[in-house]
Automatic annotation (TrEMBL):
Residues 431-487 have a biased composition (Basic and acidic residues). Residues 367-617 form the Xaa-Pro dipeptidyl-peptidase C-terminal domain. Pfam families: Peptidase_S15, PepX_C. It comes from Naumannella cuiyingiana. Residues 1-36 form the signal peptide. Keywords: Hydrolase, Signal. SMART domains: PepX_C. This is Xaa-Pro dipeptidyl-peptidase C-terminal domain-containing protein. InterPro entries: AB_hydrolase_fold, CocE/Ser_esterase, Galactose-bd-like_sf, Xaa-Pro-like_dom, Xaa-Pro_dipept_C. One of its GO terms (molecular function) is dipeptidyl-peptidase activity. It comes from the Bacteria.
Amino acid sequence: MPMYRSAPRRFAAAIAAVPLAAAGLFVASPPQIAGADPLDPADGITRAENPRVPEGAVWYEQYFDSPVASNDGSPVELHADVIRPADIPADQQTPVILSVGPYFAHAGQTSVEQSATGPSERFNDLIEGADLMDRGYTFVMVDLRGFGGSSGCLDWAGPGEQADVKAAVEWAADQEWSNGKVGMYGKSYDAVTGLIGANLQPDGLEAVIAQEPVWNMYNYLYSNNVPRPNQIYTPSAYNSIASIPGFPEDSQRYRDNAAYTGTPAGACYETNSREPAENTSLDTAYWQARDLAAQAQGSTVPLFVTQGFIETNTKPEDMDTYLANHAGPQRGWLGQWNHVRGNDLDDPDDPNSPLAMGREGWFDEVMSFYDEYLQGVEPTVDYPNFLIQDSDGNWRGQETWPGKARTVSVSLGGGRYLDDGVAQGPAPDRTQADRTQADQRQADQKQADRGRSGEGAAREGDMEYVERTPPGLRKDRDKRGGPRHGEVGQNYATFSDPVRREVRLTGTPAINLKTKGERNVMVRLWDVSPDGTAVMINENVAVLEADGRTRFDLKSMEWTLHRGDSLAVTIGTLTDGYWWPEPSGQQVTVQSAKLDLALQSTTDDVAAEGERAPFLDRYIAAYTADEPMTPPAKGRFRLALPGK
């Protein structure tokens, strides 16, 4: 068995000096990190030989082919890091937990973070927290094409990456050390690949756990044809991640795959930057191939998801559609948190910090789920299918989500606004797809440089990155017109009557507009208390349709209106948020507007254990309007459940 050789200190300094974007963007062969002789973990490396190997485990490195060529026509070889219990024979069959994604490079998840090679530590919390090695599970991490030790061009959850996921599951199920049953696990991008796996239903896939995924890839870059800054930042961020080089201790095979940038040199990154910018509508073939919610139709793979309703990163858009299309067993933790894992602490640097989701027992429930579907072990705890935290921080159990609700369609009436919204930063360059290679390289280099510092938008475009504090409402916005009904300003507002009894807004609201004028619209929902304090509880935007009839969904939600509260709906130009609008400067007349809502009683809630997620208070503070809203004496519509 080859021995692990530590890298001298000078190599750590060399790593820190490597410019990541330059290491892979539009050059034929990224520079490698100079250092020691290659390491060959084909026969297994223990923790005693490499401190990055988890306790009680042995690390193997293997390769296999993807059946679909790269978008530049080259064959794709996929790299896997295999973590097995150290105290069992190499060929003993075990259930397999698999994660497939872009964050498993030996050098680091999103940048060069390590001083010597070894398996990614991204899910050591699962390996250690769930005692996977003691339980007799194998954990496998497979690099998507273009990332880590896999060759080919990155493909942003497209047909190539979908083929990689299917190949990875089938490969893992077919190994001599596998019992043929595979469960997928991930958070963020590697939760997206879990949804892909559930959709494709490859042989051997028995269960999927997907934490905070993107349910439809279009929504991460656009909202109903309005570009988000991620339209530019996300491709740049993943170009940078894909350019992370191999270590000198890595095999030549690993380093060659890590160095691949396409044919001609840099083609992978150029294509990855150009295609999302060229395809602005969900109706294009590019985005239809990445509409995971639509592709879930008929899937029967058991699925366990988490989703923060007030997420600032991977938002609850199309979750309702995905779950409705998915036909298999479903479990979920849904609540008022940000982009976190089920076991995360609110402050990861403070061991005494409360849990970010507010509920204990994540790994207990995870392993109950896997034991049932990968080993046929009956659960010893009767967990509710869905555990949901409401906007008061209270937990309840529920068999389905959104569950039994009354759907109402309320008329909001008309109004006028001026479409003069201001973008968040400079608008994206619409000619980007036609730039010369040199211009594109310079633009991507600039974005990636900003991302490396942790201060720029390239890092913000990485699905894994999120700030602990929500951005909130801009307090310096021009308040022309304010939220006053029917006046030409940046928006107008329509209010409900104060609710007479507690009512929950659940599911996915939808807005139907009949308008005259162009171009953008923002719709927001507000919880207005009797003293006028208003908290923004939902929002989405769209480019108005040319025929004047526009319909779109808002985000999925869970929010309780208490007795005396009113619901306010503001309609207007884009004054805030994560978008890059192109304002028309025109007056838009809303001739009619209807809002579809799902209302739910709270009286039959079945309480579950759990605490208030700390992020909820930060969200409320950030999204409370700086001036009170004053509803009219009588609202335009009423929200009530039958008999209420």
